Structures are given as structure tokens and as C-alpha cells.
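Suppose a classmate hands you a notebook page containing two proteins, each written out with its sequence and a corresponding row of C-alpha cells. How would you begin to make sense of it? This section walks through that situation. The first entry is reproduced here exactly as it would appear on such a page.
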Amino acid sequence: MKVSTRVHYGLRAMTELARSFGAGRLVSISEIARSEDLPLAYLEQLVGELRRAGLVEGTRGVRGGYRLARPPAAITVGDVYRVLEGEVAPVECTAEDYLPGACGREQVCLSRSIWDRVQHAILSVLDSTTLEDLLNTDARRAAAAHFVPLEALSSTSSEYAHA
């Protein structure tokens, strides 16, 4: 399964809004576009869809901008995915609107069970991962980049102690 540009860019925009959620400030689309290196016109379309779906709130005017409609812990990646892409269905027979018997191979198909499992695994990850989870993952990664093991400190300090 390949994630569309719509979902990828939309999720990046949502994580930017999640970063500013605690501060209570509005974020302009141009600010999101700049910080995430996304095309402004395309981002305007995506944020409009997210707003109409109730995931984002907007305020017009000079000091206007956007913010999440709910806390980052209350918005899942699955919510964003469904708004921008629709349902997760790796093959036609796993779609919500699939009519049993619509496929002539249904009775003899040996691959449907794997696609059902793939769909459930994807949904499990998307629906159990919140924007807050993504922020926490990012914070841990940033902290790990600056992590210096104690062994490195003790060997460095002993080198200087003997110099």
C-alpha cells in the first residue's frame, strides 16, 4: 500500500498544528507550508477539507490562522487518513461498500484472507496512533540525537584529568 501525497502532506500539516496546540496560538497556512516545505496552494485545499471534516478550526483576518479542533491526543492518524483519502481497502473486496457475491471468484479466492489481515493491521496502527503519539515520538528522537552515554563522559573527563 502506498500512502498518497494528500495524506502525507495533510498529516504533516496536522503535526504542525499539534505542535502549537498547547500554546493556544493560531498557525497560518503559509507558516505550515514554510516549516514543512509544502506547496501553499495544495496545502490550502487539504486544510480546507480537514476544516470541513471538523478536525481543524480556522479564524479569518490579519491575526487569523488554524488550530486543531480537538487535543492532539483525540485525533488519530486514521481520522486524518479517512478525511483525505477515504477508507483503507487494499483490494475491492475489503471495501466497506463491497456487496458479498459481487466477485465471481469469492467462493474459491484464497487471497482474500491475507487482504483482510493487511487491512486490519493497517487500521489498527492508524486508529491507535494519535497526533500526540507522533509528537512524543519526535521529542524522543530529538532527545536521542543529543544523548551522550555516561561512558563517553567518564572517558572524556578522565582524558582531561590526566592531561
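The notebook's second entry, a different protein, reads as follows.
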Amino acid sequence: MAAAFAVALCGGQALAHGTGSEAVSESAEAVRFFYIGGDPMAYATIKVFSPTDDKAEYQAGFADGDGRFAFVPNAAGDWRVVAMDGMGHRAEAVVSHAAAVGGVSKSQAAHDPVSDGRLEIPTVWKIVLGLSLILNLGWLAQWATQRLRRSGKSEGTAHAHQ
């Protein structure tokens, strides 16, 4: 009875909240997160930290299916963007955002290992991977040689006992 009385007094306004939307043309920054093989970190959890407060998150959300996430900075400086996939993988990007000049922002993502869609592996890692490949191939050749020698000896001893 009291609810009906409240609705009658307010004319139905108490039960609804007004909403609205508008298109804005503000400078957004976008980051793409991916695994070393190039696969996107699809739907990864994203946290954005502003240059003015690196402890409290400025924005949180999820990457899209291609590992992309966009946000609109409210200050110039280095913005830290962290992606976590929930399976132990974590990636971090630093986006340098300059104040908008004439409606266009100037930004540059730091430590972006991708150029022209190709993954650039640092020279140190190329050397380490190359040495690892050579050592593993050498170990495999040694193991195969020892195995062949053992199987040759066991066949030779089998023929000698007959």
C-alpha cells in the first residue's frame, strides 16, 4: 500500500533512472597484448595506472578478442598498462601520452617488440637460442651414437652364444 502511494506521489519517476550518451572525440590510447608466438592475449584482464598515481588503478577492463585495449588518459605522462590472462602470463606496456594539440594526441608505446606485424627477438636471445639448439643437437647425436653401439654389442654377444 505504501509503495502504491509513493508511486502515485512521484508519478512513476522514482522507479526509473534517466540515462544518456554522446559521441566524444577525445584522444584515446590503444595497446595490443600478445604471446611470444604472436597469438593475441584475447580477453585478458587489463589494469591501467596513471602517471600521477601508480598504485591505484585508473581504469580496469578486458582486452578484446585480438588482445587490444583502449583508454582515454586524463593527463600527460607515462601510463602503465598491465595485462593478465588468468593462467600466469603477465605483460606490461608503458604508453607515453602527451597533451592533445589541436585535437590530436602524440603518443608512443615503449618497449613494443612488434614492427610491421613481425616479432623482433633481441640479439642476446638469438645467441642463447642458437647455442641451445647446437648443444641439444650435439647431445642428441651423442645419445644416438651410444644407443647404436649398445645395440651392436648386444647383437654381437647374442650371436657369440649360439
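A careful reader of the second entry would note: The two ends are 106 Å apart (CA to CA).
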